[in-house]
From TrEMBL:
Catalytic reaction equation(s): L-glutaminyl-[protein] + H2O = L-glutamyl-[protein] + NH4(+); [protein]-L-glutamate 5-O-methyl ester + H2O = L-glutamyl-[protein] + methanol + H(+)
Protein source organism: Bosea minatitlanensis
Active-site residues, record numbering mapped to chain: 179, 207, 303
Coiled-coil ranges per UniProt: none
Domain Response regulatory positions: 16-134
Domain CheB-type methylesterase: residue ranges: 167-361
Similarity comment: Belongs to the CheB family.
UniProt-listed NCBIfam families: PRK00742.1
Record remark on domains: Contains a C-terminal catalytic domain, and an N-terminal region which modulates catalytic activity.
Protein name: Protein-glutamate methylesterase/protein-glutamine glutaminase
HAMAP family linked: CheB_chemtxs (MF_00099)
Keyword Transit peptide tagged: no
Amino acid sequence: MSVPRPAAPAPARHRTVVIADDSAVVRGLFARWLGEAGNAYVVAVAGDGETALAHAARFKPDVLILDLDMPGLDAASALPRILRESPQTGVLLAATLNEHNTRLALECMTKGAMDVVSKPPSRAGMTLSLDFRSEFLLKLGNIAQPGPAPERSPDPAQGQAGLRALAWATPRYLLIGASMGGPRAVARVLFDIGDALADITTLVVQHMPPLFTASFAEQVTSQVGAPAREPCDGERLARGVVYIAPGGRHLGIDRRLGHLVARVDDGPPVNFCRPAVDVLFNDAARHLGAAALGLVLTGMGSDGTEGAAALRQAGAAVIAQDEQSSTIWGMPGSVVRARHASVVTPLDEIGGAIRALLRGGSPA
């Protein structure tokens, strides 16, 4: 899985963690890694969902590491109750990914889990894989220690006032980039746009491993009602379709035989990511210009910043999700600090505003 790798700020304090996994070996391994990292304190461990729920209610931890496959109360059932008992707890899912677990993880992320880390299929693989350990600690660190709020750029218009200023331009292509916390945010935006999606071509880069993106496309189709799928390289782009970048492959835009088509390739990672938002945004700036509308949602790292600059230079607008509504304000925050955001606005206002633009109205 491609993971953006920002420099993590030094924690102001040790963060509290609950580890919920039915394997004592895994619980011990995670606890040892956190102890060696020195920036988290494991306050409790659990071997089943009911115990995880009890520990969340008692300790109200900063982070709960939640195994998808546990006896008794499964993760999808436990998660909403955990977040009701401890709303401030960030939940990191851990699972060996297969088709079933991928669907379950996506369901959990729409219910409030922040991200998922994919366990190697064997215990030996977990113990020996430095990549897995690094990914685990990086994601947990980004959940547990967002750090001080970055300095904001004073330039972008804020909220609905800024969205109203975009009403002069009616986009024909919507380009969305997201990472940690993205599945929930992307689904929310698309759901709020609703049947106006039929008026636009939508392309989404969500940082996900391969198994996830096909399931995510199915989930979008089910929840939003618009057809969503992973495109093939050279597929002609159609209005009314939501194209999801295939996990582990870049999604861009090309012009072939006079038609705009999807460009899908295995080029090198950009910003440590494949797929990368910058690849899509840069292609859109080149081929779409002012007909594009860029949207940068929650996620760690800075992917999308360079591409947002290209979109603005080509005459397109760029919306950035605001800090308060973001799971991680890395990607949108980077765009804002670089002064490439036309608008900075809360998640719950974005979809309705885009819907109004597409239907020729002004955001309320």
